[in-house]
Inverse folding.
């Protein structure tokens, strides 16, 4: 039991792996906090992060003729726009037909994942080696590790910055307060003269950009390519983190640190003890079950 609790702190690799998972989870979780505040459940995080990873990997490779800084900026902007626009499809269906966002985000993500699987492993597959992945981005576009040999990099700085930014948005901006009003009572907000269309589109678009940023950071700092299935469970982990944080951006950091420690420790414990099943998946299911029970109460 002691090995499970403290095992990730015995090597720089597992410590960095824990913190790197925390970064990717937290960035996406901030998007989920925003959508949950607005009253919408985004169950399509996996597909959105996967889409962002594919788009960013392709852009960074195709724009390699540009100076690295311009390449990164342009690729990031395209990635954020694409993922935000993709989630806006759920906003359109909600405004036009009142189709639940929870349902459409999940179904569109499920439909998108096999498409990107095919694109990354067949159509745009790298010719180097046997990986089912797109071409690797160049060295000068990669975020360097700050805790070798782990993938932890400077993207960890984004977490407190995004946390403070989102807290400021909810507390000090009229848009953030409108989002909170819609989350508490959509009918009241509409009868008060607030725009349902504007709220749904803006909330889900920004939520999509957070997931897009997570996918972009994953490619630039961790995987350096988009390989088949790299985003599996990332979206669900982020949603779990946002729910555990109680839709409060300030609590995303401790929630993310706890969950990433839990998943990393479970994966390490399974590997070291040669377990033949996914222990981290079981733990995640238990956490989600407990959270769902609390929400229902």
């Amino acid at each position: 039991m002691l090995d499970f609790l403290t095992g990730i702190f015995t090597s720089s690799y597992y410590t960095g792996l824990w913190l790197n998972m925390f970064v990717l989870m937290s960035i996406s979780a901030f998007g989920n906090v925003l959508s949950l505040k607005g009253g919408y459940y985004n169950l399509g995080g996996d597909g959105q992060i996967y889409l962002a990873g594919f788009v960013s990997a392709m852009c960074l490779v195709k724009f390699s003729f540009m100076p690295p800084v311009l390449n990164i900026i342009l690729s990031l902007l395209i990635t954020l726009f694409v993922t935000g626009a993709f989630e806006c499809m759920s906003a359109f269906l909600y405004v036009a037909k009142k189709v639940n966002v929870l349902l459409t985000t999940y179904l569109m993500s499920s439909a998108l994942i096999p498409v990107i699987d095919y694109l990354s492993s067949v159509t745009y597959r790298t010719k180097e080696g046997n990986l089912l992945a797109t071409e690797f981005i160049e060295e000068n576009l990669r975020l360097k590790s700050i805790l070798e040999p782990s993938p932890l990099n400077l993207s960890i700085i984004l977490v407190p910055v995004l946390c403070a930014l989102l807290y400021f948005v909810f507390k000090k901006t009229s848009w953030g307060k409108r989002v909170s009003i819609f989350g508490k009572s959509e009918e009241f907000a509409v009868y008060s003269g607030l725009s349902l269309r504007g709220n749904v589109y803006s909330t889900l678009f920004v939520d999509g950009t957070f997931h897009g940023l997570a996918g972009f950071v994953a490619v630039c700092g961790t995987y350096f390519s988009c390989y088949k299935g790299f985003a599996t469970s990332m979206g669900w982990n982020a949603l779990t983190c946002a729910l555990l944080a109680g839709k409060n951006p300030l609590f995303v950091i401790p929630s993310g640190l706890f969950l990433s420690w839990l998943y990393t420790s479970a994966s390490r414990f399974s590997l070291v003890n040669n377990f033949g099943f996914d222990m981290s998946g079981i733990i995640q299911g238990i956490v989600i079950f407990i959270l769902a029970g609390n929400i229902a109460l």
